[in-house]
Amino acid sequence: MNRAEKVSGYWNPYAAGVVLGLVLFGSFFVTGSGLGASGGLARVVAFGERHVAPDRVDRNPYLAPLAAGENLPLKHRMVWMILGVVVGGAASGWLAGRMKFETFRGPAVSNGARWALAVLGGALMGYGAGMARGCTSGQALSGGAVLAVGSWAFMMMVFAGGYALAYPLRRLWN
Amino acid sequence: MAPWSFSPAVETAITLLIGFCFGFVLERAGFGNARNLAAQFYLHNMRVLKVMFTAIVTAMLLVFFTSALGWLDFERVAVPATYLGPAVLGGLLLGVGFILGGYCPGTSLVAASTLKLDGMAFVAGVAAGLLAFAETSPMFWSFYNTAGHLGRVTLADLLGVDAGWVVLGVVAMALGAFAFAELLERKFARPESPADAGQAETRQPPADRRWRWAAVGAALGLAAATWLVGQPSLERKIARAQSALDASLRSRTVHIDPAELLTLMHGNQMPLVLLDVRPESDYHVFHLLDARRVALNDLTPQWASRLPANAVVVVMSNDEAGAHEAWKRLAVLLNPNPYAPVTDRSRVYVLAGGVNRWLDLYQANRGDVPGPEVPSSGDDRLAHRFTAALGARHAVSRPPATLASGRSFHPKVKAPAARRVVGGGCG
User: Fold this and answer.
1) Interchain CB contact of A64 with B (< 8 Å)
2) Nearest-CA neighbor of A131 among B87, B135, B424?
3) Which residues, other chains included, contact B34 with Cβ-Cβ below 8 Å and sequence gap of 6+?
4) Which residues of B153-189 are buried (b: 16+ CB within 10 A; e: fewer)?
5) Which member of B12, B47, B88 has the closest CB to residue A13?
C-alpha cells in the first residue's frame, strides 16, 4: 500500500480484487449464482410500475415474468442482494469516515450539471443493462469469472464504449 | 457437492450476507467515488481494471479448480446465456453511460449508500433506463431473444478445449494487463490530483513487492493445477459416483415392471420419455411405441438440457446391461446429487428385464415372467425372432391397457418434483 492509498483509506486494488473474487466465488460455490445489481433494480422498477399501471405490467413481455399476477417482484434473491449491497457499502463508508453528503465531479463541471449527467449516464446504463441481461456485476464480473462467451463480449464492449468517448468528454472529469 | 439448495429463509440470509460483503468490498475498493471509476478511461488510475480483473481471475481460478476436483458441479453454476447481439449493443450503452455518469449500477448503489448525491442521481437514472427498456423492448423483442443466441456456452466450449487452457490464458492475459496498467499509470501520472496522487508513486515498499510475486505465483500455480487435473468429463463423474450408482442398480429400486410401464404409457399422467439404447437393427425390428433410439454417447449435458422438465425417463435395452450404462449416465446428468444414493427423487428408471421380458410377457404370453426385483439373464441380445421389421407397428409395441391391469406390481414411478431453477445474476 502506498502513501496516498493510506491517506484515502481505500484498499490496494489488487487486494480488493482478491477479496471481491473470494466473495464472488463464495456466492457461486454456496448458491450456484453470482453477484448482481441491475436485476434487483429491475424488480424494484417492476414493483413500482405494478402499483401505478398493473395492466401495462401484465402486457409487457419483460416485466410480466417479474411482476405480473402472482409473481412477487420484491421476493427475489436479487432484491435481497442489492439490499445487502446498500447496507454493506454504508457500513464500509461509515467505518472509514466517508459517510457524508457530497458530489464527486470533475473540476470543470457544476454540481447541477454533474447530477444531470449522472441521471443521463444512469439511464443509458439502465437501458443497456436491460438489453444485455445484466450489468458490470452480473454480466462482466460474474459471467466473466465462469467464462461465459456473451459476458466477455459484453465486457470488451463496455471498455470500448468508455474509451471511445473518453477523449471527447475529457472536460467532464479533468 | 456444491452448490447446495437451501430453504428460502436460509437462502435469503445467505444472499443478504453476500450482498453485504459485495457492497463493503466495492466501497473499500474506492468504487463509491465516481472520480476513481472515471479515471480508468484517462489512464492515470487503472483501479477499475485492476480490481475487476483480479476479482474475475480469483473467482475463475477457484471455480474451475474446485470443479476439477469434483467439489463444485459446474453444470449447476449459473452461466449467463450468451446473446451476442444484445450483449454487444448493451455493452456499448453501458460504456457510454459509464463515461457520462461515472458509475455502474452496483457501484452507484454503494455511492448512494454513503450519501453521494451523484450516486443517488445515477441510481434514479438506472431505474428510469430500466423502465424505458421494459417499455420499448417489445419493439425489438425478437432481436433481444434471438440475435446471436448461443445459450449456455463458455469460452472453453466455443474453442472446444478443456477449461484449464482458457484459465491459463486468462491468467496470462490478466498479468499482462496489470503490467501494462502499471506502465500507463506511470506514464499518465498526475501527482497534482489528490484523489489519485498515490497512483503516481513508482517506489513500492519491499513488502508490497513480495506479496505481489507471491500472488502471481499462486495464480499461476492454481491455473497449472486446474489445467493438469482437467474438468471432469461425464465418464469421470460416473466413475466417481460408481459405488452409489451400482448400489442403486443392485438394490433394483429403479427397475420397473413391464406392466407398470404399460400403465404409464396408457395413463398420460406425466411426460414420459422412453429411451431405447439397443443397436439400430434391433430397434427397426421391434420397439415400444414412442421409444426414441439413442446411442450412449448421445446422452450429453446438451441432450439432457432439452428433456422436458419433470419428464419421467425409462431406459431399455434387450436385456439390462445396456440400459444400466445409459441409466448411470442419465442419473449423473439429471440427478442433482449423484453422490447420494438414488432415492424416490430419481426420475430415471430401467425397464426390468428389458425388451426381452416385455416380449416374454406380451408376445409369448408366458405365465412365469418374474417381477422387477429379479435380475435378468445377462444376455443383452434380442431373444425373440421376428419375420418382419415392424418397428413400432407391431401389436406388442403398445398392448391394450387391459393387459396392464391383469398383472400385479408395486408402482415405483412417482411424478418428479419441479426442479429448482438456478437463476442468473442479473435481469
Assistant:
1) no
2) B87
3) A104, A105, A118, B101, B102, B103, B111, B116, B118, B119
4) bbbbbeeeebbbbbbebbbeebbeebeebeebbeeeb
5) B47
Cβ contact (<8 Å) for B82 and A153?
yes
User: In this complex, do B3 and A29 lie within 8 Å of one another by their Cβ atoms?
Assistant: yes
C-alpha cell at B240: 466417481
Residues in B touching A23 (Cβ below 8 Å): 18, 21-22, 25
Task: Give A56-112 pLDDT, tens digit per residue.
Answer: 988 899 998 888 888 888 888 899 999 999 999 999 999 988 999 999 998 889 999
Q: Domain-by-domain residue ranges, chain A?
A: 1-32, 34-98, 106-174
Q: Which three cell numbers stand for residue B95?
A: 460504456
Q: Which domain holds residue B35?
A: 8-231
Are A163 and B41 a contacting pair at CB < 8 A? yes
Judge if B114 and B158 occupy the same domain: yes
B160, B114: one domain: yes
Q: Grid coordinates representing B283?
A: 430397434
- Note the pLDDT of residue A68: 82
Take residue B121 and report the three cell numbers written for it: 442521481
pLDDT computed for residue B416 by the predictor: 67
**Percent of chain B predicted with pLDDT > 90:** 48
Contact between chains at A104 and B123 (C-beta distance less than 8 A): no
Q: Which residues of A touch B204 (CB under 8 A)?
A: 2
Residue B262 lies in a domain: yes
Cβ distance of A104 and B34 shorter than 8 Å:
yes
pTM value is 0.81
Residues B44 and B163 occupy one common structural domain: yes
Q: Which among B189, B205, B206 is positioned nearest to B197, based on CA atoms?
A: B189
Claim to verify: residue B70 and residue B22 sit in the same structural domain: yes
Tell me the chain A residues in contact with residue B133 when contact means C-beta distances shorter than 8 Å: 62, 126-127, 129-131
Residue B213 located in a structural domain: yes
